[in-house]
Amino acid sequence: MRRQILAFLFVTIPLAAHADDSATMHAKVQAMMDALVPGNKTPWIGTLDKRFVQIDENGEISNYDQSIAQITPLPKGASGHIDVTEWKTAIFGDSAVTTHLVDEHEDFHGQKLHALYRSTSTWVKESGDWKLVAMQTVALRQDPPAVALPTKLTGQYVGRYRAGPDYIYTITARDGRLYGATNDGKPVEIKAELADVLFTPGQPRTRKIFTRDASGRITGFRSRREERDVVFRKETASAKP
pTM for this one? Predict the structure, then answer.
């Protein structure tokens, strides 16, 4: 019995310690996020290691001093809160890697804004205290609000568009909705962000931006992923096989 108890303690005590460490790091990050609105540097100074480096959602790199300097109160007319959720921890002795979701809600001059970010962090434990040494954050893109377009306008998008000899994108209309298919693929619903800008739900990084000639006739579209375009040209009836 004594041996079984010792074996049980050998397994459960480290697990409990890891759970406590994870909760400690989680609380530190939540305090850092809570400090952003009032511009309170104290939680950041107390958590960041002097060797700290971060890469933000814009790809900018900041060291400890630069990161602390960025903590300033939100401007007049802006307020909000940030929830740190989906917290996960992997502990390796006196080092750890954590990931979490940054769920940001902002009131900007009466308008409600919502953004999501994913952060991955590296920690070290020195003198019994967990310090944050690195953090990388990416913005999680979301589908834009869809708008309803007049039937006369949506009908103009229907047709075949070619990006290359063997790459064709076909837009069809059915029951008042638009669908797009690549080559012989299954048609997928596409929606309008605004006139002449379409998107595929679930693919928020990409837009289809339609081009027109001087008479207003659609000549094609640019499939834009971030700042890069793949150009599609609309086939005329004579060009179809």
Answer: 0.79
